[in-house]
Amino acid sequence: MNFNIEKLVRRNILTLVPYQSARKLGGSKKTWLWLNANEFPFSTPFKLSTLKMNRYPECQPKLLVERYANYTNLYPSQIVATRGADEAIELIMKIFCDPGKDFILFCPPTYGMYKVSAETIGIDYKIVPTINNWQLNIPEISKNLVNVKVIYICNPNNPTGSLFNLKDIYHLLEITAGKSILVIDEAYIEFCMKATLVKLLNDYNHLIILRTLSKAFALAGLRCGFILTNKKIIDLLLKVITPYPLAIPVSDIATQALSKNNIILMRNNVKQLNSNREWLLQKLKKCDCVEKVFLSESNYILVKFRDSLKVFKKLWNQGIILRDQSKILGLSQCVRISIGTSKECEHVISALKNLSLE
User: Fold this and answer.
1) How far, in Å, CA of 188 to CA of 299, rounded?
2) What are the structural domains, with CATH classification, of the chain?
3) Prediction pTM value
4) Predicted confidence band of residue 310 (pLDDT cuts 50, 70, 90)
5) Residues 188-231: tens digit of each pLDDT
6) Could you please report the per-residue DSSP string of 139-189?
7) Would you give the end-to-end CA distance of the chain in angstroms?
8) What span, in angstroms and rounded, lies between the C-alpha atoms of 207 and 190?
């Protein structure tokens, strides 16, 4: 028996435009240089310490949470481990937002999953575009707080690589107190630890910070993230999170990554990557095809080209996969380039220089 299955599908899912992940965008078989997903350019040397998979894992692996608490100078009761930061984004909406009644708010250009997650769950959203070199438009946000339960701020911001003014974030914390939850997405914070807001968690009970092991810890394939906040919100999160969010292999490797020696390894790797970023930034400024290079505090650089589509396609054909951002609000002619190894960065510059001579 055949019938139109779409009659059973939620209307918002039929019209949903899914998030375009790096692997969905793909690449040719000859592709060898992936610079479109902000991944760490080399893997870490971890191996499973257990092969016993016949038992369910802990909902919140004790040693993992303790080690992340130690890493962030928080208490274990202030932390929930999640399947990447993406699960955390959705969990927060599920707790605080009533579909059809409440809103989330975000400030584009920014991470696309805030919008996609809201649309998937059926939550309305408000957008307040950034201004003045991608800074928060506080007066406009203030005007749009009616029925806004959650505000998402990505800091450092993806895809711009910029930091928001700390004074504006303090202002935002003050005007949202008692009205909205403020979520600071610190997925890229290890590349500029000076900007973390972890110390503010004890002063503002409506502040939530998101973290991940995907970026600086070079564990994108592991899918392990963390929510940092106060115990009252943690207790709510534990009500709605799935019974077994982290598989045993995930918690095993993640716990290893958070040992003292491996945190030192991560920090040394970050220093090297930040050095590569500065080299690439200076070289990009000298390429004829480049109109503007934006300063970055993360592991990627946003670049405005004279003809971004030409650059993107030409490098794609050479096996260099970048991230086209030109269709995003405020990012016309822009492409995001993830920071690779020294050789990978040199290869990108070589390709761009050859392109600029055509």
Assistant:
1) 7
2) 5-43+262-352 (3.90.1150.10), 62-259 (3.40.640.10)
3) 0.94
4) very high
5) 999 999 999 999 999 999 999 999 999 999 999 999 999 999 99
6) HHHHHT-TTEEEEEEESS-TTT-----HHHHHHHHHHHTTT-EEEEE-TTG
7) 59
8) 19
